[in-house]
Amino acid sequence: xxxxxxxxxxxxxxxxxxxxxxxxxxxxxxxxxxxxxxxxxxxxxxxxxxxxxxxxxxxxxxxxxxxxxxxxxxxxxxxxxxxxxxxxxxxxxxxxxxxxxxxxxxxxxxxxxxxxxxxxxxxxxxxxxxxxxxxxxxxxxxxxxxxxxxxxxxxxxxxxxxxxxxxxxxxxxxxxxxxxxxxxxxxxxxxxxxxxxxxxxxxxxxxxxxxxxxxxxxxxxxxx
Length: 224
Known about the structure:
The chain has a domain at 26-69 and 118-214: Clam (outer membrane lipoprotein receptor (LolB), chain A), CATH 2.50.20. The N and C termini lie far apart (47 Å). It has 224 residues and is α+β, with helices and mostly antiparallel strands. The chain contains 4 helices and 12 strands, in the order ααββββββααββββββ. The protein has helices at residues 5-19, 32-44, 125-130, 133-136, and strands spanning 49-59, 63-73, 78-85, 87-94, 97-101, 109-114, 137-147, 150-159, 166-174, 180-187, 192-202, 220-223. A 12-stranded mixed sheet has the order 7-8-9-10-11-1-2-3-4-5-6-12.
């Protein structure tokens, strides 16, 4: 099969990246596609994933916002981000709907949206990226960094087709566990979002109400 000039160029760049020797005593650059595939296989194989998170949102219009809390995921369509700061805020995917409850900014209402069916992930960005990473993204190894005293590969993912959520994602992937430790997104809206994960726990039981949103008394449901 003949390759186009652009395909040959891309292939050459991947080979260059793979064989590049980083100066200053660093290791040889890693194969980004192999790292992405391993990380995707690990992530898809989890029955559940829990972590503490810190989130940083940088927006030219409103400045920088910091938040933190606990994240729980089960499969592609169940996700809960429970915020301790701002306390009480919540983003939840229950398998059918996305619930966005932010009493810190919009008290008295919760937004409910249907989870997109193609792709099914919606706001569940880690699953979106790590499901079929080499089929949907141009993957590039950026560098090696230490996270909590352990080596991690910093890998860039650029969608090969137009993505409604982001133009670029960078994930720090732990070399030992192949689990994500940090995520940075350049969103289509112009927002730069950073998610830092710690205290990772895998394959632990989730409660029966973990992914159920109980509408508080007096709170109005707004369907979008």
